[in-house]
Specification:
Length: 273
Amino acid sequence: MSERDGFQPGVPCWVETWQDDGDAAAEYYGRIFGWEAGEPLSRDDGGSFRICKLRGREVAAIGSPIPDPAPPVPSWTTFIQVESAERSAEKAREAGGTVIVEPMESLEAGSIAIVADPAGAAFAIWEQAKHTGARVINEPGAWAMSMLVTADPERAVRFYGEVFGWETETFGMADAEITMFKLPGYVGGEPEQPVPRDVVATMAPAGAAEGAEAHWSVDFWTGDPDEAARITEEMGGRVLAEPFDIPDIGMRQANLADPQGATFSVTRPPGLD
């Protein structure tokens, strides 16, 4: 397990999803991950916001309904910690990105902005205050990693390097080559993981983005991807890629869409009994 009490600037630190039916989303993720969704917090616009927990520690959030100007399709958003939302938003502009939502007060405390990279992949930057991000990561039922899917990897490398100081390294996985985004000096993850511990995110192999819009995907660990796929179909979601084994690494993975359409992946990491 990996319990955290904060992240350094430049590190993805939180994930949340906005859906039209927050109660239904909380029920679904409670079943597949064992999340405890507390009483929803009321918002000024009449919506609600739930902090989900695992063993009493924050893992993710579910908001409802989907706010403007977000697209009407439910999705998962990756948050990256920054020292200043204002300065980081300006860096994103200078690097060729777009600021979709200007820095504003965050529901989780602090200041956030919604940004898109030059290819249109959206994410959040978060200048934290009292809330310090996910307090459980890299264990079954928790978020483990976010992956950038883009048809323009070279431009992405430049953009994220200029905005967050990320460097890159590649490694082979099965028949594909994965690009890892690394933050020098960062130590995260778990000692037994198959990638270096300064990895903060990954980028899909060439060809993975064919026909798809650029986006950030999120991956959660689970002890049983097959059971997660079964529950997903039972509750009205979709299995986008049936559970499959990743040779030589000892991982098993599936790509899913929850009952309201938000997509994500689930992975059984190597060495998990």
